Amino acid sequence: MGTKEPRLQAVTRLGLRSHAFARHVYQKIAAVTIGALFVSGPGKRLRASVARRHPPFATPDVEVAIVAHVYYLDLFDEILECRSMLPGTVPLHVTVPSDRLEEAERLLGNVPGLTIHPCENRGRDIAPFVMLLQSGILDGFDAVLKLHTKRSPHLLDGEVRRKLLFAMLCGERNAAIRTVAMFEDPTTGIVGWEACYRTAPPYWMANEARVREVSARMNAAASVRLGFFEGSMFWFRPSALAAVNDLALSMDDFESENGQVDGTLHHTLERCFTIAAWARGFVVRDLQGRRLP
User: Fold this and answer.
1) Which stretches of the chain score pLDDT less than 70?
2) How far, in Å, CA of 240 to CA of 281, rounded?
3) Contacts by 205-213 with C-beta closer than 8 Å and gap 24+?
4) What digits encode the pLDDT tens for the residues 33-50?
5) Could you give the percent of the chain with pLDDT greater than 90?
6) Directed axis angle between helix 158-170 and helix 76-83, to 10°?
7) CA dihedral angle for residue 263, residue 269, residue 274, residue 279, rounded to 10 degrees
8) Please, what is the angle between helix 173-181 and helix 158-170, to 10°?
9) Is residue 198 a contact partner of residue 106, using CB atoms and an 8 Å limit?
10) pLDDT at 21
11) Which member of 1, 38, 200, 205 has the greatest number of CB atoms within 10 A?
């Protein structure tokens, strides 16, 4: 019995890894085929035509904002397109690397409801987001959409993945309003696209030990499990991430930019946002409102 148990565990781990790999490959193929069609010009026009056939949903009683890290300024129009799907002029907080601030102010200065926050170019979208979160500027909102101009040039489907995430999170008015309405439930902490939600052990990559260390510092050690939105784009309630604020991080805590694809503090925190929410009793949901594990 004693020798069979480790073998069974090894076979189980191998099966989980094989399943995760197969799912990963399937999603890659789907992204560059069906996904590419979905976010193409004709695909967008078809979706808009279908959306116009349905009356607009009532606006929920929820204070909404968008926070976006804009490294690639030429993609800012995609952020504005997402905002246009929400009622009114939703406040938009944009973080921009300091060396691009002058260009950003020239290009974006006339956008109503926009606040530009210069930041150091480290920690990708995560470090500027955490700094903004810690500043308290988002505390008055019930639901905030976190976006960034993700290109991922090292990935075959990098451009398509960004467009798909934008489309699913805030690409159609009634769908966006339905998502916002989930935050009328005070237990809703984070809402994201289930297709990007990772729970399979291989997705720890080189980050598990550091996730456990950071979670302990957040007093969230009991809530540690793998379940995160790959790409770090999702809707969230600022109070659900209060444990992240307790870390009292500074920009200097994040590694200098060197093209890293894994193992940094920002990769660790990507896996900690849900843990922070769970530790404070909040629920993580998909875009249909279903509770995610």
Assistant:
1) 1-39, 43, 46, 48-49, 152-158
2) 8
3) 205/262, 205/263, 205/267, 206/262, 206/263, 206/267, 207/262, 207/263, 207/267, 207/268, 207/271, 210/263, 210/265, 210/268, 211/268, 211/271, 211/272, 211/275
4) 666 666 677 767 767 667
5) 74
6) 20
7) 110
8) 70
9) no
10) 54
11) 38
Instruction: Show the tokens assigned to 291.
Output: 């509770």
Phi, psi of 58 (to 5 degrees): -70, 145
What is the model's pTM? 0.88
Please state the domain extents for the chain.
4-48, 57-286
Q: For position 28, what pLDDT does the model report?
A: 54
Q: How far is it, in rounded angstroms, from Cα 215 to Cα 111?
A: 38
- Token digits for 121? 């170019």
Q: Which tens digits make up the pLDDT trace of 206-224? A: 999 999 999 999 999 999 9
pLDDT of residue 11: 47
Dihedral of the CA atoms 53, 168, 288, 268 (nearest 10)? Answer: -170
